[in-house]
Write a structure and sequence with these properties.
S16 Ribosomal Protein, Chain: A, Ribosomal_bS16_dom_sf, alpha+beta, 3 helices, Ribosomal_bS16
């Protein structure tokens, strides 16, 4: 029998409350479970002591028996110091591809060229004698 340590949802509509349960992997999410080993109330602030409550001894027992925690429960267990959870994000997944890197380089080159052109235009304006502004003619009627 494959045993999981997972969350079982309770509470009213838009007011979730979860039980941390040990259940057969084939049973429904909110269905039959073997044992309740904790609770999770996501509506409480993250630093509140009652947000996650765990029965550490029973969880250690079930982990020794071969129960596999789900990802969310593994996060709770890692925060409690019961189980070491490895990061699951792939750091290379968010990096830009070859074509995107080429486009970035092209944009940098264009920006540098525009800055150089603006600097040259400013230098040329300083060197050339300033043209006198035409005097305003006063029209008398």
């Amino acid at each position: 029998m494959a045993v999981k340590i997972r969350l079982s949802r309770g509470g009213a509509k838009k007011r979730p409350y979860y039980r941390v349960v040990v259940a057969d992997a084939r049973s429904p999410r909110d269905g039959r479970y073997i044992e309740k080993v904790g609770t999770h109330n996501p509506l409480l602030p993250k630093d509140h002591e009652d947000r996650v409550k765990l029965d550490v001894e029973r969880i250690k027992h079930w982990l020794a028996e071969g129960a596999q925690p789900t990802d969310r429960v593994a996060r709770f267990l890692d925060a409690a110091g019961i189980l070491k959870r490895e990061a699951r994000n792939n750091p290379n997944k968010g990096k830009a591809g070859a074509k995107a890197l080429e486009r970035i380089e092209e944009r940098k080159a264009k920006a540098e060229a525009a800055l150089e052109a603006a600097a040259e235009a400013a230098a040329a304006a300083k060197e050339a004698p300033a043209e006198e502004a035409p005097a305003e003619e006063t029209a008398e009627a």
